[in-house]
């Protein structure tokens, strides 16, 4: 499974009352639709976008990191995609998605007339073959676990007896194809799950679920050289370590067709170099400001009128290393949460550019119901003090974070509130770099409360909970384990309908909040900048340039 | 003594004489006897308004540093976001910073750390430099050659770069008491600045070595240590003292520079430099956050530099 990323990302208090040009309300340039076609510059021009060298060849099932992810995203369109503004999942290539009453079967009807970039039609078979290929253990595709819930997955992908790092290869699975996938006709196929899993629909916008053309199966090596997708952008060329060029696919039938002719994903050697290039208009789009640009809010002056900040699928929180006996007491953890006045910090330190968290997911996630944390995430001096006294904590509350990301201000502010409310000493312990902290977290050697930020893969609350709070989750760094929560999450994963799943996830969140293994703080926006060559720039909630919207100025 | 007028006359006469005696070097000098360099300098200094102003400021700062609680009743570390960035008022003379902390109280309590760094680093620099300089100057030859080369190595290090490297190396060592933080900065500063003091001392020692009284002492069989401490040290002290006074002021400013870069002092040793560093992002929205500590810093550095100038003029009239 693509490992969602702990965010090194940097937050900087926005000093000046910056008007966030939130993409949501700005539809002025959107209405003219084909208007972009009349613009000559769009027909010939190239937009260069900051990227990083893809880890693997551009095969969607094997691309789980952001560098290749954003290119694969552009080149392929699956059954579902996400609204670039609300991140709501909507049908893309799927004409209709039907879920059986028990939630165990999902039938996809495809739109007719879609083709791959090589002209061959996109059929149901292309999906089924691609998914089987990705899930098949010996193919070693990184996205294999995305098909875990499909019936028959355990027959094509056997667990490695000594772990992924071990010397022994995983045994050859008994089947090559998942029994849960069935082609009905050219434009229809059916998925059967081992347990009800209607929430599957929401995950489908992730590129791992893309179809692959027949040419891929005939000659994978050739495909890796010149990938053929079915998305709005067609592969042109790739210079390893430097750039990938794609051009608009004119026969594309989807709604997210591009307006400009070419898009170039460039890989400058560092974010700092990329930033300098954007300032000089040599690079058109940078999705994350490097810390050096955030310091003192330089980016706002350097990129005046061509930078912005957008909400992404990310949440800022503070985590307790639960393996340290100091933090064993639930009362203590709840007391800290209730001693922090999120409202006040977001208003003063962040100038209102953050939203206080009310649960364990970002408010950008569709279907997510706020308020799971309830009173526990609201400032309540009396209750906090009462809980704190009950916990019997002695000593100094220490909160640590990387010092290079501009976190000092808000940690200091939170510390001040903790001291004022609980009467306990509290201090910020800066650590030089994010890597240094991650090392200690991975080795389970943390002794201080630490800042943690999470960027989700797909807009589903599940992605904020399962990896972090489920026993043995891929990013469960603190050893949090509550069988009741595990059971509730499992129940939600296999709920019979999406609404039911959302309700169950909400319940799980409520249970997690009672244990308070981490304190949700606020939504974490990302700052981005662009060159003077562009107009209609906006960033999607998964931190990519909205290529269907951008135009050349 | 029953006549008040006579008593007053006698008194004023008496005090006049005492002052004169004092000017002659602690009352030991008699009329007509040549005054020492130090008493001469003191007599000179007392008449300089620059010196008096600087001394008053510095004395005041010392009192503030030692007894900050006399000047403010506010807790410098109490945070309250509801008053974040409020401008000066009768409640808080200098207003509040981003965290809602009283800037005046913080500046008052910060005096201690800023002065401590300045004084500590100046003392260390002078002690290291003076000892090595004296030894090099007195013994000469191979000793001088070796010590001078060592000094040149340190002299060759760019100051800010060197300080960044040293402080970075110690930064993650888990030092977190205020005093230890100050000592770390003091150590870094003196390690990088002693060569200048050493050179000053060395050249003074070389010229003093040629003086007759040193030769006489040696002829009488005095040991090297006795000559160095009894005869040379007192006579070489003037130039280095001048240097130290000026250095003190500049060290306070350097500490602010390093703290601004995020490698000098930090919580809990909140100096003016730390305050300036914390305030830099808010210069456009709340300039008072930066202007007050910066102003105090400027006045303090100015006072020390003025004092150093005056002392130099008095001790080393050639340079005037």
What features would you describe in this structure?
The complex is a heterodimer of chains A (553) and B (320). Chain A has helices spanning 40-44, 66-75, 124-135, 153-156, 200-203, 214-218, 220-225, 271-279, 291-294, 298-302, 330-339, 342-348, 381-391, 408-422, 434-442, 462-469, 483-493, 498-515, and strands at residues 5-6, 46-50, 80-82, 89-91, 94-99, 105-110, 181-185, 188-192, 233-239, 243-248, 262-266, 285-286, 307-319, 397-402, 426-431, 449-455, 518-530, 534-535, 551-552. Chain A has 553 residues and is an alpha+beta fold. In chain A, a hairpin with a 6-residue loop joins strand 3 and strand 4 (89-91). In chain A, helix 17 (483-493) packs antiparallel against helix 18 (498-515). Chain A starts with a strand and ends with a strand. With 320 residues, chain B is mainly alpha-helical. Chain B has one domain: MetI-like (MetI-like fold, Orthogonal Bundle). Chain B has eleven helices and no strands. Chain B has helices at 4-23, 37-46, 49-66, 103-139, 141-156, 159-171, 178-209, 212-219, 224-260, 272-279, 288-315. The chains are: A alpha+beta (553), B mainly alpha (320). At the A-B interface, helix 12, helix 14 and strand 15 of A face loops of B.
Main sheet properties of chain A: 7 strands, mixed
Structural class of chain B: mainly alpha
In quaternary terms, these chains amount to heterodimer
H/E element order of chain B: HHHHHHHHHHH
Task: Describe the global form of chain A.
Answer: globular
Question: The biggest beta sheet of chain B, please?
Answer: none
CATH class of chain B: Mainly Alpha
Approximate helicity band of chain B: over 70%
When the domains of chain B are counted, the total is 1
CATH architecture of chain B: Orthogonal Bundle
Question: Number of helix segments of chain B?
Answer: 11
Number of separate strands of chain B: 0
Uncertain spans of chain A? 9-37
Rg measurement of chain B, Å: 24 Å
């Amino acid at each position: 499974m693509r490992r969602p990323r702990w965010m090194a990302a940097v937050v900087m208090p926005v000093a000046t009352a910056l008007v966030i040009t939130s993409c949501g309300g700005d539809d002025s340039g959107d209405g003219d639709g084909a208007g972009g076609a009349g613009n000559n510059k769009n027909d010939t021009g190239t937009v260069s976008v900051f990227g990083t060298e893809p880890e693997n060849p551009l095969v969607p099932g094997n691309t789980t990191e952001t560098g290749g992810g954003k290119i694969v995203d552009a080149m392929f369109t699956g059954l579902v995609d996400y609204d670039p503004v609300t991140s709501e999942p909507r049908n893309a290539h799927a004409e209709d998605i039907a879920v059986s009453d028990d939630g165990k079967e999902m039938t996809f009807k495809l739109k007719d007339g879609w083709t791959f970039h090589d002209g061959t039609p996109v059929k149901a078979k292309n999906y089924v073959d691609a998914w089987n290929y990705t899930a098949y253990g010996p193919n070693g595709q990184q996205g294999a676990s995305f098909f875990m819930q499909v019936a028959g997955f355990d027959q094509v992908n056997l667990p490695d007896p000594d772990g992924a790092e071990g010397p022994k290869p995983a045994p050859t699975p008994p089947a090559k194809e998942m029994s849960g996938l069935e082609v009905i006709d050219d434009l229809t196929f059916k998925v059967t799950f081992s347990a009800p899993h209607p929430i599957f629909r929401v995950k489908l916008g992730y590129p791992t679920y893309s179809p692959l053309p027949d040419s891929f199966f005939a000659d994978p090596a050739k495909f890796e050289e010149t990938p053929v997708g079915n998305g709005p952008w067609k592969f042109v060329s790739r210079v390893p370590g430097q750039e990938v060029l794609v051009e608009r696919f004119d026969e594309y039938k989807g709604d997210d067709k591009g307006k400009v002719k070419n898009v170039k994903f460039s890989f400058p050697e560092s974010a700092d170099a990329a930033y300098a290039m954007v300032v000089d208009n040599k690079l058109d789009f940078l999705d994350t400001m490097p810390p050096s640009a955030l310091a003192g809010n330089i980016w706002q002056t350097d990129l005046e009128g061509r930078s912005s900040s957008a909400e992404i699928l990310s949440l800022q929180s503070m985590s307790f290393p639960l393996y340290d006996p100091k933090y064993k007491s639930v009362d203590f953890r709840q007391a800290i949460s209730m001693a922090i006045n999120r409202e006040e910090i977001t208003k003063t330190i962040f100038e209102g550019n953050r939203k206080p968290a009310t649960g364990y997911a970002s408010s950008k996630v569709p279907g997510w119901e706020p308020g799971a944390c309830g009173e526990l995430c609201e400032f309540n001096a009396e209750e906090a003090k009462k809980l704190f006294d009950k916990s019997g904590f002695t000593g100094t509350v220490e909160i640590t974070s990387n010092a290079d990301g501009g976190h000092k201000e808000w940690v200091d502010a939170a510390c001040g509130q903790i001291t004022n409310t609980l009467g306990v000493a509290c201090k910020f312990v800066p650590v030089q770099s994010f890597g240094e902290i991650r090392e200690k977290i991975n080795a389970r050697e943390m002794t201080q409360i630490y800042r943690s930020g999470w960027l989700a893969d797909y807009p589903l609350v599940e992605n904020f909970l399962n990896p972090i709070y489920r026993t043995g989750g891929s990013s469960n760094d603190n050893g949090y384990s509550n069988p009741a929560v595990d059971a509730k999450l499992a129940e939600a994963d296999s709920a019979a309908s999406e609404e039911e799943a959302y309700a169950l996830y909400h319940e799980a969140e409520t249970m997690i909040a009672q244990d308070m293994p981490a304190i949700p703080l606020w939504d974490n926006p990302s700052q981005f900048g662009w060159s003077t060559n562009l107009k209609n720039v906006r960033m999607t909630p998964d931190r990519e340039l909205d290529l269907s919207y951008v135009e050349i100025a | 003594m029953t006549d008040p007028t006579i008593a007053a006359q006698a008194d004023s006469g008496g005090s006049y004489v005492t002052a004169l005696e004092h000017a002659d070097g602690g009352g030991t000098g008699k009329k007509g006897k040549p005054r020492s360099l130090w008493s001469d300098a003191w007599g000179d200094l007392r008449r300089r308004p620059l010196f008096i102003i600087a001394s008053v400021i510095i004395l005041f700062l010392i009192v503030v540093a030692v007894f900050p609680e006399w000047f403010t009743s506010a807790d410098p570390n109490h945070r309250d976001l509801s008053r974040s960035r409020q401008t000066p008022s009768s409640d808080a003379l200098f207003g509040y910073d981003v965290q809602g902390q009283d800037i005046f109280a913080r500046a008052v309590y910060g005096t201690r750390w800023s002065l401590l760094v300045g004084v500590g680093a100046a003392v260390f620099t002078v002690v290291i430099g003076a000892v090595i300089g004296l030894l090099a100057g007195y013994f000469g030859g191979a000793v001088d050659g070796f010590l001078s080369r060592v000094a040149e190595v340190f002299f060759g290090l760019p100051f800010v770069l060197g300080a960044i490297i040293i402080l970075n190396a110690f930064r993650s060592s888990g030092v977190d008491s205020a005093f230890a933080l100050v000592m770390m900065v003091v150590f870094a500063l003196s390690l990088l600045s002693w060569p200048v003091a050493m050179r000053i001392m060395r050249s003074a020692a070389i010229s003093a070595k040629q003086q007759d009284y040193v030769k006489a002492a040696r002829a009488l069989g005095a040991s090297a240590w006795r000559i160095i401490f009894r005869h040379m040290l007192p006579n070489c002290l003037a130039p280095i003292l001048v240097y130290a006074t000026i250095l003190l002021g500049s060290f306070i400013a350097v500490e602010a520079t390093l703290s601004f870069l995020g490698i000098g002092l930090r919580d809990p040793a909140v100096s003016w430099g730390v305050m300036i560093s914390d305030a830099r992002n808010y210069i456009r929205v709340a300039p008072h956050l930066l202007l007050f500590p910066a102003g105090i810093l400027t006045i303090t550095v100015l006072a020390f530099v003025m004092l150093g100038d005056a002392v130099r003029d008095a001790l080393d009239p050639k340079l005037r």
